[in-house]
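Hi everyone, sorry if this is the wrong subforum. Our group has a chain we'd like a structural model of before ordering constructs, and none of us has done structure prediction before. Sequence below.
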Amino acid sequence: MTEFDDVLRLVAEADLPSDVGWPPTGATTVDLQRLRDDLGFEPPAVLTRWLSICNGSLAGEGGLLGANLSGPREHLDMSFCLDLLPGWRERRWLPVAGDGCGDYYVLDASQSHYPGDAIFFVDQSDYDALDYAVASDLPTFLRQHLLCLLDPDPELDSTPRWPFDRAITLAVDPRLAELRTPRLLPWNS
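Answer:
Right subforum, don't worry. Here is the predicted structure as tokens:
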């Protein structure tokens, strides 16, 4: 059993194209070494564990990013994204997912706002600023992100949900309250 078992179940339940195989393939040691070389630093261990299990996926509206992807999945490659937004590499913001509208979820490997590898939303209106935190760690983010996408029609229910509802969010991710920059909490943004 791994910290990503629930996430893999949710990836399996996602509305994936028929030509996408199951289970997902993990990054090879060569893929991970190329990512390390491209970043110029060691990615967080949790990200390496995730990529070893699932190296990019079309699950979610903008997909889950991977390492050393090419061809039709190049848009899901972290390094490809970092080449488009080179300031992220310097800040140690590692893109882990997109929302399908040009916005990204990044793992802040600098740990400048949280004493761990928190995930933040970056809006396309300003790629140089973290908009708000969404999770205190990668497994929690992936689980909540994919759960929200399985909601049949959130447009019919205008009630704030994860990550904007404080009670709901802290119930599934109490460590998010440890964020050092309160203005980046989603219910404060």
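For your construct planning: Residues 138-150 form the longest helix (13 residues). The mean pLDDT is 90.
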